[in-house]
Amino acid sequence: MIAIRRTSSRYALLVGVLALCASGCGLSTELEREFDPDPERPPATTRPPAPPPAPPPASVTPDASPSVPLQPQQDCPPSGVRFGTGPVSAAMGLRAMTLTVTNCSAEPYELKGYPSVTVLDEAGAPLEAVRTAEGTDEVSMAPEDPGPEPLTLAPGETAGAGLYWRTAVEKGVFLRVAPEEGDDVTTVRAEDYLDIGPENVLGTTAWTRTP
Hints:
Blueprint: H1 6-35, E1 81-85, E2 89-91, E3 94-103, E4 109-111, E5 116-120, E6 130-134, E7 151-153, E8 158-166, E9 170-178, E10 186-197, E11 200-204, E12 208-209
């Protein structure tokens, strides 16, 4: 039997490992040359990403109707009363809205009869052929008008009137109102639009005291 010396086997294994490492180093060098054939060239600097484009300046939305003088937001108007509107209720083509008037003065304010109301579009022009009527007889399915009675509003008290119409296409945005026909008018922006134009009837109930 031929004896194999362990020293020679270890020597042969060491030589093989060194050869493999040398070949691996050479392979990595070749790969680097393929990606960068000019190793003397300084590495390219990475250009920072371009900043995002600046957003366009915000558009300034003008007043929906600068030609319409609106009721002051805070102070009590010279008339001594402030108007307001409620949301629109809808059922089977019938529309309803509450118009309110509040005595914001320091003196009692007398009311009698019906409010004066004109429906205006976004430009502040009256909606074509929309007519206001005292009472609700001309508005199909509208509730009965309780009828006028004299009211005296103490400072801070409020009265209300119902506005009724049948749905149409054109929309009213503003209401030109007065406590009664012939009184000084003011313009308020309705809480909801009135889909009442172009030809229609706006029925109004008489002023009644609100709780």
